[in-house]
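User: Can you predict the 3D structure for this chain?
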Amino acid sequence: MITRVRLKDWKSHAQTELRFGDGTNLLVGGMGSGKSSVLEAISMGLFGKIPGLRERGIKQEDLIRSKPEPAELAEIEVGFMLPTGEEYLVRRVIRRKGGTSAELRKADGTLVEGSTAGKVTEMVEKLLGVSYELFERAVYSQQNRLDYFLLLSPSERKKKIDELTGMDRLEEARQKLGSLSRRLLEEAKEKKRMVEGRDRGTLLKQLEELRRKKEEDEKRMAEMKHEEGRLSSRLEEVKRKLEELEELGRRVERLRIREKEEGARIEQLQKQLEEMKSKLGRISDLEVLEREGREAERILSEAREEEERLRLELLSLERRVGTLRAELREREERRKELERRVREKEGKERWLEEKGARG
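Assistant: Here is the predicted structure, written as structure tokens:
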């Protein structure tokens, strides 16, 4: 039941508030006094729409009072009570610029819905149990349209009443349901014929084959799990070797640094030897110079031997690093292959379980 209506700057209403009681309520006034505007406001307040608005070429901004001075917005409040006794108040604001806003509250002011105007309309329709289409066709009557149903032919009147009550959709649903029922019945019969036509011995044979495959797969799974455990231990060993490889890499780097240092030392000794040889022509004490030369040559020979030893050790370490890396790649590939086989096995087991369950 509509309990009250409040209008502000709505069409010809600057400030109007109406309260309704039980039973029939009448709006009495001369032509142009705004009686129809109140009914349109009720429709706008509840559903955010007015019947026949587009057909009459009226824009939404035309609903805002324009005389004597144009208002910037119009406000509508419609209060209604449900059969349960709960009271609600829906409020809508229409702006010349910026669209509309709406909110729905209980009588005590608690906000029920206010996110969007569309959400408010959906909640009002849910509370009233009446959609806008049903309200427009069965509850609301535009001015001078009370005889609408009386002027229709019997067949058109029946069609309109079916549309209002939803009987047309019910008939359409009934026809679709009958078609669906027949199709499902035929499918059920076909499935039954397929099951009955199968040979029991064939089914048992297929079941036995599935069991055999399941046992084989379980055995393979156990083997794969064993292999997984073995590879896990090997993986630990690979990790240790990888750490050893890293340590060897650091050692190689140290040897390279030492090799550079020895090379610099050899260069220095060669320079010293050249200086000593040049002194032979200038110094009379040849015996001393010869001893110094032999000593320098001995030191140079030792340095070259040390350089060669370091070079060979570095070469050996590089070959060992290459071997360890190749072994590490091979084991990583074997681990990935095992993971792939495990995933493939698990997928087969799920498929067999599903197939066994359907069987």
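The longest helix spans residues 200-280. The CA atoms of residues 259 and 310 lie 7 Å apart.
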